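Quick board copy: two proteins, each given as sequence then tokens.
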Amino acid sequence: MQKNIIVSYGEARFFSTKIIPFVISAILLFLLLQIVQSAGLSESQIGAEEEQFGNNDVPSGFGDENLYTLEVNLILREEIEPYLQPINGQLVEVFWDMRDIETQEMKEFTLTSNTDTEGKAIFDLFPGQYKLRINYNGIARNETIIIIPNTENNIDWVISKYSIGEYNLEFRDRNGGIIYPEETIRMIYRGAPQLIDPSSIQLSSELGDINIIFNVKEVINRAEISIMELSPEESFVVGNFSPDNPPKALIYSIDIDKRAGL
């Protein structure tokens, strides 16, 4: 009887030396999970963070050492002196899409800056793809840019403004004297400027009752004659146009010079 007891005790002792490490490991794993949960990070959130910051198409990284400077130079080019001048106090916007860790939805984020007296707007951005937008008195454009590490990311955004002398407008009145944005009108004028890729046309009157921006859809230059297909950004009333109140016509083009990684 005593021999059996000794054997059983030996087997129990041998068994306990094997199971104790597993018990300790289970306890440590449980404590680790408690710490992670208390920090508010679930397994899916951790995976989402890894996916987000591993994507080169969106801003990534942590700390100021991963930020790179984007310099935007906004310049107005005119037909009269000083011909070239910086545009100060102009809002410049930078957009990008990034996944929200909490909702797992893609959201749009924005940074804004106003140009200084030299026409410069400065941004500190993580590497990735962005949309740059400038709306100068209704003359707007979006441009895709890519911030690349260890490079000088500079953009010259040049807005050229030209005046048009005499011109003709052709359109069909289908709505009792109202032209809507989905409709197209035609502008015809002779002489300079003849542009290949103009951005917008602005018609404005001295009385202030006409101020319309048209987006240029198509341009045909024939000899000295330019023909443009235009669509208004907003509806307007044709009756506001009259020989006694002729609107002044300005044509705008936007040239973007990207340097370095952009």
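And the next:
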Amino acid sequence: FLKLTRQTYVSHFEKYNPVTTKIAKQYDSETGPGPQGANQFQLYFGDSWHGSQWNLGIIKNMCLFVLANRADQCFKGSLSTEAIHAIIWGHISQARDSWTQQKPRMHEEERDRFETAAEAATQAQIDQVKRYKSVCKANCKQKLNKREDGIKKLITHSSKPEEKKEWKRVEAVLGDLGELGQSSDDTDVEVEGSALVTTEPYSHWCFLSHSCRP
């Protein structure tokens, strides 16, 4: 998909040049040619893009390309044309979302006008921050659940009363910290070169080890 659209990432279509509305509408109304030649893979992102005959033609062209070049692209398996169609459509949907991020939209408060370019850029930044916070919150929750499960295992497998007592204290601290007390990174490493690792060896005894880089 990226090769045919000449893009690098599906999530970075901000500078993509889709086919014009005029060309797409002419094909939809059967008054103009369809996607072929130089624009055989050029998508349409304007109004009613999801039901555009132009985009359906693009998907057909892409499907044919995939099937014809499956050996060169190391494409394994036996996906049906319908499955390939669905995958490509998913990519198109993501690409269009990326393309529209910094495009003017209807103003949220003044519904009788579109956003200015500056307002669109500001809104795009706000949306990006919202997405980042959403991802951070999900990471924090996942990390808290993982740590709580690890502490419970340590308490269960502690052989000495004093060890069990210590881990219960850690569990209480972890509970007080909650989701907001966890880092939003995808790793437990808070300081470079130092990581907190929970392991469970074959003896089924859990313990914490503090590993440092040499």
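Board note added afterward: Residues 117-157 form the longest helix (41 residues).
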